[in-house]
Every structure is written in C-alpha cells, then in structure tokens.
Amino acid sequence: MKFNLWLSAGLLTFILASSGQALADQTLLNVSYDPTRELYQEFNRAFIRYWQEKTGEKVSVRQSHGGSGKQARAVIDGVPADVVTLALAYDIDAISKQSGLVPPEWQDRLPNNSSPYVSTIVLLVRKDNPKGISDWDDLIKPGITVMTPNPKTSGGARWNYLAAWSFALKKYNGDEAKTRDFLSRLYKNAPILDSGARGSAINFIRHGMGDVLISWENEAFLALKEYGPEQFEIIIPSISILAEPPVTIVTKNADKHGTHTIAQAYLEYLYSKEGQDIAARNFYRPSDPDIARKYTHQFPEINLLTVDEVFGGWQKAQSIHFSDGGLFDKIYVNQ
Amino acid sequence: MSTFKQHSVLPGFNLALGFTLLYLSLVVLIPLSAAFIYSAKLTWPEFWNAVTAPRVVASYRLTFGASFAAAAVNAFFGLLVAWVLVRYPFPGKRLVDALIDLPFALPTSVAGITLTAIYAGNGWLGQYLEPLGIKVAFTPLGVFVALTFIGLPFVVRTVQPVLEDIEKELEEAAAMLGATRWQTFRYIIFPAVLPALTTGFALAFARAIGEYGSVIFIAGNIPMVSEITPLLIITKLEQYDYAGATAIAVVMLVISFILLLIINLLQWWVRHRSTKA
C-alpha cells in the first residue's frame, strides 16, 4: 500500500482542508456509494437532530458518494472514513483484507448481516410494456435489447448478473450448463455494457435505448418518481436476489478520530423506527417488521434468494463469476 | 560539466537545469516509477499472463489502432482547418477559431455523453447512419469518433502558428519562378509545417491513448470488441488487483514511450533534413 501514499496524502489534505470549518464539533465522514445520495441527505439531518436532543452535542456528517468499489479503494488508500455504507459486503471485505482498518468479522457487529435496509433487482420497461416482458425468461428472446452495465466495473451489474443466474438455476433445477447458456443468451441481447449503473440508466431513460433496464429497485422507483409513471413501468420478476448493502464502522479510523461512540450510534440509528422509515421513503426495503408493514403497498412480495444460499457468499461469487478468467469472461471469450 | 558550459551564453544554466530535473522528477518520474515498482510485485509469469490475456491484447489493438487512425485523420483535417483559418478571411472566423478549443475545455465525460446521444441509433446522426448499415455508437468506430473529437485542437494549434509565420513572399517567389500551386504546396509550405504537423500528430495520438472519459460512454465496452485498455485497468482495480492494473499500465507506458520516441526521432530527422537542404 506504500505507493498509494502520494494519492492518500493528496486526498487527505483535500479532506482536511475542506473539513476545517467543522473541526469544533464532532464530525463523521460517511463514505457511501452512488444511489444512496438522497437517502443519506435525509438521514443525516434526522440523526443530527436526534443526537443533539439526546446528548446536547453538535455533530456534523459529511458524505462522499461514488462507485462502491472506487469508494472502498479510496478508504484503503487513506480517506479517513469513520463509517462506510457500501453496495457489497465484498467491498468492505476488501477494506478489511487490504488495509486492516476493519476487523474480518465486521459483518457480525450489527443485526441482519450489518444491512439495515435491503433492496433487490427489478426490470424497468417502457409504458404499457410493448415487448410484453414479465420475467427473466423474456430477456433472452431474440429481438429484445437489454440494458445492463459491465459486471467487471459495476457493483450493480454484478447484482443484475447474480439475480439472472439465481432465476435460471432454479428454472433449470440446478443444471449449471443450461444456466450458463441462459446468461450467455442474455448478454447477447445486451449490446452495450456501460461502466456504471448510472450510465445504463441514462441510456435507457434519456436516450430511449433498449427495451428493458435491469435495475436496482430503488433506482427504478426514482426513475418513476422523476419521469412519471406515464413513461415507465416496473416489472417484478418471479425470482430475484436479495441485495444487502452493508454498513460498518471503520474501526481504526474511528478510534483515531475518537468518534467510535458516535459512529456506532449513527449506524444503530439506521435500524431505529425513524431510520427505517427514511430508508423506506427512499425506496430501500426496511428490515423492521412494523415499518415494512407500513410500506407493503410500495414493495410487492417477491421471492428473494440470498447470495449466501445460491453462491456461498460474495467471496466465492466474485472469484467464480467475475474475476479474470471467471464465468463472465468465458461468456465472451469463447464466442 | 565543462562541455555543457561552453555552449551556454545565457547565465543561470546550472540553476535552470537543476530546477528542470527536479520538476520533471517530482511531476513525471516519481509517479511513473511507482507504477513500475508496483507491478514488480508480480512474478514474471504472472506479469506476462496479466498483460497478454486475450481481452487485454484485444484492447491494445483497439486503443492503439483507433488512436493512430484518429490522430492521422486529425493530422489531415487539422492541417486543412489551420490553413483555412490562417489564409482566408471570412465572416465568423473568430468564432470558428474559438470553437477549435472546445474539445480542450469540455469535460470529457460531457463530450462522451453528447457524442453517444448523437450517434446512437435514435440520435440526430445515428438515425440516418443506421439505415445505411453504419453503426457508430457502441462499436470500435464510436471509439474512433470520440478520439478524433478530442484530438483535433492539438493539430490545429500546433500547425497554426507555423503557418502564420511562413512569409507570403516565399510563395510569391515560388509562383514567380514558375511553380504550380501544387508544387508550391509540396515543396515550400509542406516541408515548413511538417515538423509542427508531426508534433500535433504525436500530441493527438498520446492524448487518445490515455483517453477514458469521452470514450467510455460511446464504446459499449463489449469484451473482446470495444473495450479500451484504460477500461481494463479500471476493471483490475475494481477487483483490488493493484499489481495487475499497474502491469497493464506499464505496458501502455512502454509502448507509448517507444511510439513517441519514434515520432520524435522522425521529427528531428525531418527538421534536420529540411535545414540542410
């Protein structure tokens, strides 16, 4: 890691300089991923209010957003994050493994595998569903154009791939060769692999490209909210994957900054009724049963499989499917 | 030291040279050598496997091929644009002149998104090209288009001042001596701008090789077909494979350096020959 010192030093000075005005109070830096921007804007305001009422202390929370993997690398390279709230457990595992800033058993420190809210992968189609898409099967039909980013560069794209794989594996009763063929046909229908989920969404929504966008559920809701239900429809597939975006304290950084207590409270507050309500309002599925009941009209029932039960965890999924020479590469290289 | 000094008429040579070397080291050499040291974490077979994987080799072909083609096209049309700007007065000339710099100033991702929107199957230009069987966006051709876009100012801005400096009398003299217009261009103007033109070409080429932002949106990023090498470096980083990423970077660096060296030698040779003649 020594050679990232230059980069780290640069980032550090930048962040220290930009935080100068907030030094009087306790400051938390939450390093997060792209689609959580709106969620944490709202949540941070609520937490600041809650913390002041409880302790009288003023706290300020700074946010950083970007691709999940990129954000994890920034933390490894020295961005002084107190907490990370990322898209994949794999990315926090990487922080733990590469930098030791987080203990290896981090995922046991908070309930539900450290995921206060969950999400899933759904299909977004154009109004009135002109191509009659109702499930994953329809995506491999000839003449359908599927928009999904490149799993090698996008965390969201990896969830898309795993969701489709889970469906096919079930459909073919665990026959892996047929499942592979299914994925290969699906990616034949995907002529563009953007480098990030936002790129695919822009191509689908703004540029009118493709018949169906494989998307995070919360992003699909955001598209509906922004462009109106008269333009798009969300199709809930019969099976999808349970996406658990995990949160954790970056232990060594928080200890160094003396922010451990407040960072712990910050993350725990995500599990509170108010935190859960904010997550649901921002289209993440809440884990709290009461809040979940309140939002049942918003989140239809869906058969969600976890990465652990289908793939044996993220580490395994990553090395079998997405590492160089893995199954995703084979789909293309052998063509 | 003394052989250095005997040519130096200006004072402060040692100090200036010292600053030059220090500055170059800080800004260029140290970061670059870090890339080399980082990739040295790999054993030689690992390094070789990382940089010769089929996907990576396909990306070198695309990156260097498209960059070369784009720079070549820019060299031709850039010369033309510079010529028109220098030699002919026309209304709106200043505006056109300012437009040339736009690819410099525009954030590359904005350029990428705009080009994609225009050349996509339902875009302004794409809708007319697609029926003709020409697909630009999300193909290697799209990569070439984006690289041409960002490379244009390099050629125009290096050739323009040289053209401005060429004395009109030279051309008049050539005409008086009975040269045709083509001969005037071929023997008088072209040799004079050739060194600047090769510089412009080299700059456009070098910029295109490293370009990421504007290409990534229009490329489509299909493995083996339209992935550029910088994308594969990002891909490696995304897997926390720092050593693999820098290995590819080192290969790019070495190839680029060799190519630029060849272009520089060529340029030196051209200049040398033209001053002798």
Please give a structural write-up:
The complex is a heterodimer of chains A (335) and B (277). Chain A is α/β, with parallel strands linked by helices. Chain A has 2 domains: 141 residues, Periplasmic binding protein-like II (D-Maltodextrin-Binding Protein, domain 2); 157 residues, D-Maltodextrin-Binding Protein, domain 2, CATH 3.40.190. Chain A contains 16 helices and 11 strands. In chain A, the strands form 2 sheets. In chain A, strands 4, 5, 6, 7, 8, 10 and 11 form a 7-stranded mixed beta sheet that branches. Chain A has a 4-stranded mixed beta sheet with strand order 2-1-3-9. The longest helix of chain A is centred in the first third of the chain and has 19 residues. In chain A, 48% of the residues are buried. About 3% of the residues of chain A have low confidence. Chain B is mostly helical and 277 residues long. Chain B has a single domain, classed as MetI-like (MetI-like fold, Orthogonal Bundle), CATH 1.10.3720. Chain B has 14 helices and no strands. The longest helix of chain B is centred in the C-terminal third of the chain and has 35 residues. The two termini of chain B are 33 Å apart. The mean pLDDT of chain B is 88. At the A-B interface, helix 3, helix 4, helix 8 and helix 16 of A face helix 2, helix 7 and helix 13 of B.
Briefly say what this structure is.
Chain A contains 16 helices and eleven strands. Chain A is an alpha/beta fold and 335 residues long.
Write the layout of secondary structure elements.
The complex is a heterodimer of chains A (335) and B (277).
Chain A lengths: L4 H15 L6 E7 L4 H19 L3 E6 L3 H9 L6 E3 L3 H11 L11 H4 L2 E10 L19 E2 L7 H17 L4 H13 L8 H9 L6 E5 H11 L4 E4 L3 E5 L3 E3 L1 H7 L2 H10 L3 H9 L3 E2 L2 H6 L8 E3 L1 H5 L2 H9 L4 H7 L2
Parallel strand pairs in A: 1-2, 1-3, 5-6, 8-11
Antiparallel strand pairs in A: 3-9, 4-6, 4-7, 4-8, 4-10
Helix pairs in contact in A: 2-12, 3-4, 6-7
Chain B lengths: L1 H4 L7 H27 L4 H9 L1 H34 L5 H8 L1 H4 L2 H12 L6 H4 L10 H26 L2 H9 L4 H30 L2 H7 L9 H10 L3 H35 L1
Helix pairs in contact in B: 2-14, 4-9, 4-11, 7-9, 7-12, 9-11, 9-12, 10-11, 11-14, 13-14
